[in-house]
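Batch manifest line 461
LIGAND: flavin-adenine dinucleotide
JOB: complex structure
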Amino acid sequence: VIDVAIVGYGPVGATAANLLGARGLEVEVFEATTSVYHLPRAAHFDAEVMRVFQGIGLANAVLSCAAPVRGMHFVTASGQKLMCFDAPDEPTANGWAAGYMFYQPDLERTLRAGVTRFPNVRVNLGTEVTAVRDGEVEAAGRVVRARYVLGCDGARSLVRRSAGIELDDAGFDQPWLVVDTFLRRDVALSPVVLQVCDPSRPSTFVPSAGAHRRWEFMVMPGERPEEMEKPARVRELLAPWVDPDAVDVVRAVVYSFHALVSSSWRTGSLVLAGDAAHQMPPFLGQGMCAGIRDVASLAWKLDLVLRGTASDALLDTYQTEREPDVRQIVRLAVQLGGLIQTTDAAVAAARDAQFAEQGPASLGGELMPASGPGVFHRSSSRKPFPQVGVRDEQLGDGFAIVASEPVAFEAPIERCVVDDGSVGATIVRPDRYVFGVAGSSDALRTMMDDLRRLVGAGARG
Ligand SMILES: Cc1cc2nc3c(=O)[nH]c(=O)nc-3n(C[C@H](O)[C@H](O)[C@H](O)COP(=O)(O)OP(=O)(O)OC[C@H]3O[C@@H](n4cnc5c(N)ncnc54)[C@H](O)[C@@H]3O)c2cc1C
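JOB STATUS: finished
ARTIFACT:
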């Protein structure tokens, strides 16, 4: 019996394989296709996701195929700004740029290359999982037994269907034409993402990494998707933006954007992550990010449970922590989708007039919601510990205390890092979220007791 079977080797499955591989667990990955999905979907990830890549030792490799985000503006057809996010030049509290633009196939190749460092992770490409039961998967005529089966198998997840888990529909279903291009020559285009709230044709421009540029055009009522995908139509749509001869069209495909969240994220040994658990419209560039947060929250919990130091009930906190966060991001993405997708000219004019009066709204700062309740002390912000003074490498892979002076600690805490700038003591979780903050040694002792009650002594090795 292996520790974890991962079904699906997209960005979420590949990140999970790195996280679990680094923890020394016996993992087997099953992926139906033989190579990374050649068409880009995600184009943006945020600072917290970069921090997950840092944690698996792939920050530099990922940076080589990513470029810092400059911002995102919601504008009208005439260029009036409705909402703006301009990325600061300096690193954010997560220790990285606010976000990065990237080319998904490059990122996936980097994540997969990272997995080859772990002899304890076996990857089966071209191997479709055909049946999933509690504690086992069946692929290519072989039955593999696993303590946990991680469904990273995307929107049509077999693991989700096998677990009998339903999706809640947040009421969003809109086709958009997504056109990915590669610049043949230098062309002056916006350095920030533009969400053009034009009622006659809502559109998005994404300055991806390198010479990749993306446009997205809403499919208007009465338009047929297959007509929209035709090269001549794509050229017409691109023409107001760029000389169509200046770009090579990599693909032009109509996607239906949805807003769906699983009613349950785990049944027994079957656990869902990424698009298998939730899908959202891409207006915030958060779908894959949410999936990577999922597996970052899950990996250390699975490790503690598989090593027998914490009970299986610890895994219940996976959903309690992740679901409220995901639902809030989905709601926000749907709201922004509603703003950009207005096709009623009168409604759009009233909206624009209102923004003209109040000035452009600022999008950013505290956009990311706090985690839901779970393995947190009541003093916790339920947010990531700022990577400002102390770097994550100093914290190690387990629970750590950051304090202004050395303090005594015991398992599950593995380290104490002294930081002159810190006030009191903070316990940081393995996924870098703040477990809790204590202002006195008594408070710290009680907080450590609380931690032990929640996760056990957590000795690893
Ligand atoms: C146009 C567009 C733009 C987007 N932009 C962004 C963005 O900017 N930022 C962002 O964060 N997100 C974005 N997203 C969302 C993002 O692409 C997805 O959330 C992300 O790819 C999901 O990753 P995943 O690993 O969960 O699933 P997937 O990438 O779908 O991977 C699932 C894998 O499982 C495999 N699989 C399925 N069934 C089986 C089986 N039975 N056996 C074996 N293997 C199986 C599949 O072959 C696939 O490789 C965007 C999406 C779209 C469509």
